[in-house]
Structures are given as C-alpha cells and as structure tokens.
Amino acid sequence: WDVASLYCSFSSFCECDFRPDLPGLECDLAQHLAGQHLAKALVGKSLKAFIQNPAPSKPLVLSLHGWTGTGKSYVSSLLAQYLFRGGLRSPHVHHFSPIIHFPHPSHTEQYKKELKSWVQGNLTACGRSLFLFDEVDKLPPGLMEVLQPFLGPSWVVYGTNYRKAIFIFISNTGGEQINQVALEAWRSHRDREEISLQELEPAVSRAVLDNPHYGFWRSGNMEEHLIDAVVPFLPLQRHHVRHCILNELAQLGLEPQEEVVQAVLDSITYFPEGEQLFSSNGCKTVASRVTFFL
Ligand SMILES: Nc1ncnc2c1ncn2[C@@H]1O[C@H](COP(=O)(O)OP(=O)(O)OP(=O)(O)O)[C@@H](O)[C@H]1O
C-alpha cells in the first residue's frame, strides 16, 4: 500500500487518477469510430449519467457484443484513455483475458478466489477502478459468479464502497444475431442508423443465455439486471473499412493514398457469399494490411 491508496481508502472523495474527459471521448468516437451509431450513443449516454452522478447507486456495467474486429476493444481502450490519466497503463485499469489470466479450466476454484480478492483489493485501493473482461464467452464457466456481489446496488461489500467502479465485458456472443438483423435491414433498404437497440437487445440476451460457455449463463447477472447496457456492435461494410484505413494512414502521419485504400479494401473478404456486404474480420487486419501495401 502506498500513501495514495491508503489515503484513498479513508477518503470518499478520492478519485485516484480518474480524470474523465467526456467531450474528448465523444469527439474521438465521432471522428474515428466507424459504423457504430448504437455503441457511440449508448456508451456516451451511460458514461455521462454515471460520471455526473456524485453518488451512483451501483457500478456501471457494460456488456459489449459483436462480430470480430468491429471496435469493441477499440472503444474500451478509448474509454480507459479518456477516463484515467494513465489510460490503459493506469494502475486502476485492470484488463483480464481468458488465455492469459485463466488458461486452465481445472483451476477455476483457484481463479475464483484470486479474482475476488483482486477486485476487492483494488476497489479498496481505488473505488474508481475499471475492470475489463475480454472474451467473456471463453472464461471458465462459473468464474464470473464471484463478481456478482460487486455489480449490484448494495451499499457496501466486504467493507468496501464499490459503487463508483466500471465493469466492461466483451464477447462475440450475439454477433451472428446482430449481423442477421443488419443484413435484413440492408435487404429491406432500411437505413443502418434506423436499427434500434430494441431490435437487437432481445436477440443478444437470448444468445448470451443460450451459450453454455458464457460466464454470465451460470452467474445469473443477465437475469438480475446487473448489466446497465447491452452494447451491440454492427458488422462493418466496405465504406466503414475505408474509414478504418484512413484512420490508420492518419495515425502513421500519412495523407490518404487511394491506391493503398483500394488495395486494402480489395484484399479483404466479405460476407454473405451473395451480397459480399460485411467485412469478415471487420477492421481487425487493417493496420497490418496498410503496412503491407504502403
Ligand atoms: N468500428 C470501428 N471504427 C474504427 N476502427 C475500428 C472499428 N472496429 C475496429 N477498428 C480498428 O480495428 C482494430 C481491431 O478492432 P477491435 O480490437 O476493437 O475489434 P473487436 O471488436 O474487439 O474484435 P474481437 O471480437 O475479435 O476482439 C482496432 O484497434 C481499430 O483500429
């Protein structure tokens, strides 16, 4: 324990290195996040309500769903960047990945103890902590049970005020269902921006509950309404991938180069077989393809 965390544990005002810059986040999302009108709106709205409330009644719990490469990790890292001074490297941002942190299903009981004490210890050190769980559908079943007491509205758990924490869960579960809704909207000539959360949420929730490998399936978080927002990420079309390529070129300090843009777009595979509408891996491989074609 350093002096700062000791101070934090006695001071309800302590915000550690939590320095939220919501206008900055909104601006970055508006400029760089392609094709995700629902994610943009939902993340912005839930964060604003949560951060502006000096005494939230429960932690903020977001569940991000969608096809690979559609921006779930990207949005999470922007969140960390605009909420904490140290961004993803802040000592109060905790990132869990099944392959790295929970690789052996036979060690689940040990992982449960460790996860519970890790979350508890870090919330004691700083109530304003961000816990990021990647590939939730690949976590050992039952592991997430230990998180349940931290996600709800109780006043205090194990002597710690945890209501200012943020939990983000990421998975591909529900991705196929989201893709189907987006495809049907396109086939019936509906504007993509008309796709509403009400259309997607039931399908995503069903996919989560039906998936026996999904951590929440056993822990009951879905049923108990501990999740504040189910955030669907739509599959990306060719013009969205173009946006990602231009982002990448700008990041490299380069002007848009049409031959590179076309070469990258043409090297990507699209689905379904007939319409060739959505990028098979979203923008996941854009960075490496840009480097290749430069
Ligand atoms: N909607 C998007 N707008 C802009 N860039 C994007 C978008 N989606 C993905 N990217 C780019 O592609 C990279 C990979 O995407 P990201 O890691 O966020 O995918 P993901 O949805 O988390 O995929 P997975 O489910 O496979 O983990 C990002 O770092 C970002 O540069």
From TrEMBL:
It is found in: Endoplasmic reticulum lumen. ATP binds at G66, W67, T68, G69, T70, G71, K72, S73. Its main location: endoplasmic reticulum. GO terms for cellular component: endoplasmic reticulum lumen; nuclear envelope. The keyword Endoplasmic reticulum applies. The keyword Calcium does not apply. One of its GO terms (molecular function) is ATP binding. Transmembrane segments: none annotated. Residues 239-293 form the Torsin-1A C-terminal domain. Keywords: ATP-binding, Endoplasmic reticulum, Glycoprotein, Nucleotide-binding, Signal. It comes from the Eukaryota. Belongs to the ClpA/ClpB family. Torsin subfamily. This is Torsin. It comes from Microtus ochrogaster. The gene is Tor2a.
